Structures are given as C-alpha cells and as structure tokens.
Amino acid sequence: MPLISISLRKGTTPEYRRLVSEALHASMVDVLKIPRDDQFHVFHEVTDDNFVMQPVVFGIPRSRRTLFIQLSFNERSAAQKAELFRAIVDNLRLHAGVPEEDVMLMAVETVRENWWAAGRVVDPATGYDERMTDVPHLPNAPRLPRLPDARHLPHLPDARHLPDAPHLSDVRGDSDR
Prior knowledge:
It is a single chain. The protein has 177 residues and is α/β, with parallel strands linked by helices. The chain is built from 3 helices and 6 strands. It has helices at 14-32, 78-96, 168-171, and strands at residues 3-9, 41-46, 56-57, 60-61, 67-74, 103-110. The strands form 2 sheets. Strands 2-1-5-6 form a 4-stranded mixed sheet, covered by helices on one side. A two-stranded antiparallel ribbon has the order 3-4.
C-alpha cells in the first residue's frame, strides 16, 4: 500500500491534480508492480508563504509549479528506485506537463510489518500484498505461482492509456515561469 504525498502551491485545478495522480500511479504500477487498485495519494496545496524554496535549487532554476513528492513504501533496491524516479519524471512531463526541473522526489521506506489495511492479505513468503507477482523474495522462500496481472482484466483501466496532457497554458498562467 504505497502512500504518496504531493505538496504544491495553492491554486491548481482538480484536472491538473488528477493528471499528476494518474502519472504517479502509472509509474508505481509499471515499475513497482503494485496492484492497479492500490492507489492512495494525498495532495497538500499550500500558500506561497508556506512553500519556502529558493528560485535556484542544486544549481537549477525551479518555478512556482515545483512539486515535492514523498513516496512511502516497503524497501526496494536502489536500481528499482532509480527506475521509478525516472518513470515518474517522464510520466509527469508527458501526462501533466510538469518539467523535470520542477519535480523533487523523496522515498521513505518502511519495513513491511508497519503497513496495515483492512482486507489486505500479505503473502508470508514475501511480506508483500498477495496480489503482487513481481516482488523480491526472502532468502530460501519458495517461489509462489504468478497470479494474473489485474491491469489486463476487462473491468480495470490500463495505466498505459492515460489521456493526452493538456497544453501547459491550460494548467498554469504565464506568470508561473
């Protein structure tokens, strides 16, 4: 059950936040192989005086549209996190019109036993949701049979088919740059 918190400046549209959420979720489904219905995103829109950031961070100019995204999930390899970060940046650019320089990401990893949700069934061999089929296994744990990929069931939308992103002028004013 990954939890994603997105902090951004106040004044975005519901459509923009939906596109950001869909881009993030598509990345999580594609890279971390989480179930399609395992989506929990919280947006924190804050006023300018509560979003304190230098106009140039790490030597790169940042706009007022900068997003700070905190990802909370179980332990993943450095390679998998790098792949996830790249997918998030790419999907945000393609589907929500967010430039790479306006994305700041941080992963917070917790041990698997720190997560609970009613109805969730954890596979004791992996410590992950039993519906996840591509997760690291504990040493000497038996491999379980692969379950069908829920993204291909007819009643669930495929994350790869996100709507086209709106033109940037539709989601930000000219004064935002």
